[in-house]
Sequence to fold (633 residues):
Amino acid sequence: MMRRLFIGSVWFYFALLLIGPILYLAVQSFDEGIAAFWREVTKPEALHGFMLTLEITAIVLVMNLVFGTITALVLVRQHFAGRTVLSGVIDLPFSVSPVIAGFMLILLFGPETILGTFFGTLGVKVLFAMPAMVLATLFATFPFVVRELTPLLQTIGTDTEEAARTLGANEWQVFLKVTLPMLRWGFVYGATLTVARAIGEFGAVLVVSGNILMLTQTATLHIYQSYVDFNYVGANAVALTLLAVSFAILTVLELAKAKSAAIVTSAN
Amino acid sequence: MKIEVRGLTKQFGSVQAVSDVSFTVKEGELLGLLGPSGSGKTTVLRLIAGLETPSGGDIYIDGKRVNDLSVQDRNIGFVFQHYALFKHLTVFENIAFGLKVKKWKPAEIEPRVAELLSLMSLDSLEHRYPHQLSGGQRQRVAIARSLASRPSVLLLDEPFGAVDAKVRQELREWLIRLHDRLNVTSLFVTHDQEEAMEVSGRIIVFSKGKLEQIGSPAEVYEEPATEFVARFIGAMNILEGQVLNGVVKIGSLEFPASNISDHVHVQVGFRPYYVKVAEDPHRYRQPATLRHIYFLGVAYRLEIETGEGLILRSRMNKEEFRQYRLEVGQPVSFAVTHFRFLPQEGISFPSSASSQLFDAGPLTP
Fold:
């Protein structure tokens, strides 16, 4: 009896929060037929938004993988003054509203500031352009790779790398043949979370991008703009497409996980 | 290849992990580094391997000073306590790792790995991953991996510490056989005195970063050089007393000490099997009460209490035990047949003072 109640309440919770809204979104997207859906998704403004989101996500993913790995390695392996402070600060993006993050970038790179003037004289446009949007997305996604890798590095320890050294491997070989392969699942999870968050990022990007049509309007900004402009089918269609992409990423991840588990069991 | 260590010292911050340690591992020898945890034995091993840099002293492998050689260039095999296998690689790839890194040709790698697989009784496991192996198999893979490129010396850090007691025993015997066969100079670290005694030709006993004694298992056991060694290796009764008129009197026990000047405080040590116990209260000179009986499998350990409240341990073989039908609480008699004065810091005894035979009275009434 209690068991049924618990299972039932979980289903209800999921239905209310996830399944219901998604189904409703799917239905609403095709409210005016498949042709309307297709028109909304393929119109230049939407395509531009998808491309921009894709570009930002790709840049952010690469930067997070590189700097996230370095940061995690330094935090776990190096003992230096301020290590605990740094370790605590890494989670800050989780607790700061993206809007505030965007606002901080505006203050930092505004035309009146030293940085703003510096980049202005170089002719590099930071605010209301790609650089600020990448920075804003980086701010929101930076913790993911680091947070996936640090516990892994802690459990792995340094034995295996030392073993590789005793076998004659130089530092590069140790890193490429031992450290990176051992961290691979951390990379997969960190990358997935980064991509999902980068695709969905809205607040910080809205503040720093200026939401300029065909220039700095990402897919999520396009959804917002369509909604504000009473183009509900447009908003729903692009939203459903983004949702499908996120879902596809998660599915690929789960399949990869299942496959690696299958290799393990079949070899047994 | 010979390993020689001279004045080796290692400091971690304010902690002196290894202080002024010197010893030689002879060519082809299997030598055990024994000590409690935190005694610096693992640090010594890591210093020899090049995984740590010494704060002072020199390390020679095969007569060549290797202090400035990186771990990669020392040509050593190192076996880690928790295997440290590459989890993402198969058994074959693990063993081949060092060979690939050292640019062996594939045509040479395959027969070498196959040779090691059969040497380590790992045939048919080459395609498995480490998590699909038992603890004993993992450690054999780790040893095979360390031996693959024919290192000049093999260093093992608590090699059997992570497996259960039964597998540990098998691995020990197996390591001895392997060493007999390959004859590679080997140094292994253990905190288990029984393991050190069983596996090694010679033992080095460590305590607090210092070398306490080097010797064969029998030497270390029978002639402990320090109080620490006496207490650490095997069970020993240790009593303290003062020399007076050439005798140390502890309770009703008397130990002749003619070579030691009066008023010196000494420690008297004797192994449990040098304490003879009899059911008959008049068989031996000393009376006592039987407090505990421990069954050790091969023999019994008796704990007796003298009239003055001294607790002594005695070892009795099964045949004798069966004859006597001893019971806890009953009066017994005992005698100490051998004893030695334990060396103490700051006091040196004439060598004849140690290891003397002491006839504690007639064995027959």
Summary: The radius of gyration of chain B is 25 Å. The CA atoms of residues 293 and 302 of chain B lie 5 Å apart. Chain B touches chain A through 29 residues (CB under 8 Å).
